[in-house]
Design brief:
The protein has a two-stranded parallel sheet with strand order 1-2. The chain folds into 2 domains: 159 residues, no CATH class; 78 residues, no CATH class. With 255 residues, the chain is mainly alpha-helical. It is 78% helix and 2% strand.
Length: 255
C-alpha cells in the first residue's frame, strides 16, 4: 500500500521523489524499447535508404567504394539509427513533455506543445530543402574538380564519408529551420523580445553568411543558397516574435 501511495499523486497534484523517479524510469523504458524496435525495422530497410542517398550523387557521376570490411555495415547502422530517431521523435518529445508538464502553467504547456509540433514540421522542411535544393549544388561543385583535367585523380568516394556528409547537412538545415519555432517559444516564455531580434539583425546577417561559408563548399552560389533561406527565417522569426509578444502583453493586461 505504501508503494502505491508513493507513486500516486497527492490531491494537490504533487508527487513524491520516488514517484517522480519511477515515472522517469517508465518513460525512459518506453523510449528505449520503442527506439530498439523501430531501429530494427529501419535496419531492414537500410539498403533502400542508402540507395536513396547515393542516387543523388550518381546524377553527378559519383562512384562509391568502401575501404574497410565493416564500413558498409556501419553505414547501414548509422542510417537506421538516424531513421529510428526521426520516426520516434514525436513519441520521445511527448514523453519529455508529459514528464515536465505538471510543473508548467497552462500557457507554458500551450507554447511548448505547439512548439514541439511545429518544430518537427520545420525540421522536416529543413531536411527537404537540403535534399532537393542545397545538396545538389554542393555535390555538383565538389565533383567538378575531377573533370578539370589539371590533376590525374579518379574520384572513388567512401560511402561512409559520403553518407556522413549528407546526414550532417540534413541535421544542420533541420536545426536552422527551427529558428522561427525557437523564437516563438522564447518570446512566449518571456525570454526574448522582438525588439532584441531587430537590434541584432545586422550582426545576425554577418553570422549567417559566415555560417553559410563554413557549412558549404567554397562556392558563392552554394553559400547564397544557404544564406538567403537563413535570413528569410530570421525575418520570419522577428514577425512571429512580434505577434506572440503582442498577444502575451494583451493577455497580461487582461489578467
Amino acid at each position: 500500500m505504501k508503494k502505491r501511495a508513493d507513486k500516486a499523486p497527492s490531491p494537490d497534484g504533487s508527487m513524491s521523489l520516488s514517484g517522480h523517479l519511477k515515472e522517469l524510469r517508465n518513460r525512459i523504458l518506453v523510449c528505449v524499447v520503442l527506439l530498439v524496435v523501430v531501429f530494427g525495422v529501419c535496419l531492414s530497410f537500410a539498403p533502400q535508404l542508402v540507395t536513396l542517398l547515393t542516387d543523388m550523387g550518381k546524377r553527378f557521376s559519383y562512384v562509391y567504394v568502401y575501404i574497410a570490411p565493416q564500413e558498409l555495415f556501419l553505414v547501414y547502422m548509422n542510417v537506421a539509427l538516424v531513421g529510428a530517431v526521426v520516426v520516434c521523435f514525436p513519441v520521445l518529445a511527448y514523453q519529455v513533455y508529459a514528464f515536465c508538464s505538471p510543473g508548467l502553467t497552462g500557457r507554458e504547456r500551450g507554447y511548448i506543445s505547439g512548439s514541439l509540433l511545429a518544430g518537427g514540421l520545420c525540421f522536416l522542411l529543413g531536411v527537404a530543402f537540403a535534399y532537393f535544393i542545397s545538396l545538389p549544388f554542393m555535390l555538383r561543385f565538389l565533383i567538378q574538380f575531377t573533370f578539370t583535367g589539371e590533376v590525374d585523380v579518379t574520384a572513388s568516394i567512401s560511402i561512409q564519408q559520403y553518407v556522413s556528409f549528407l546526414l550532417t547537412v540534413f541535421v544542420i538545415f533541420g536545426l536552422v529551420f527551427e529558428l522561427p519555432v525557437v523564437s516563438v517559444l522564447l518570446t512566449g516564455l518571456g525570454l526574448v523580445r522582438a525588439e532584441w531580434l531587430v537590434k541584432g539583425r545586422k550582426v545576425m546577417i554577418v553570422v549567417i553568411f559566415v555560417l553559410a561559408a563554413i557549412i558549404t563548399p567554397p562556392d558563392i552560389v552554394s553559400q547564397i543558397m544557404v544564406a538567403i533561406p537563413m535570413i528569410a527565417l530570421y525575418e520570419i522569426s522577428i514577425g512571429l516574435s512580434r505577434v506572440v509578444g503582442r498577444a502575451r502583453k494583451t493577455a497580461a493586461e487582461a489578467a
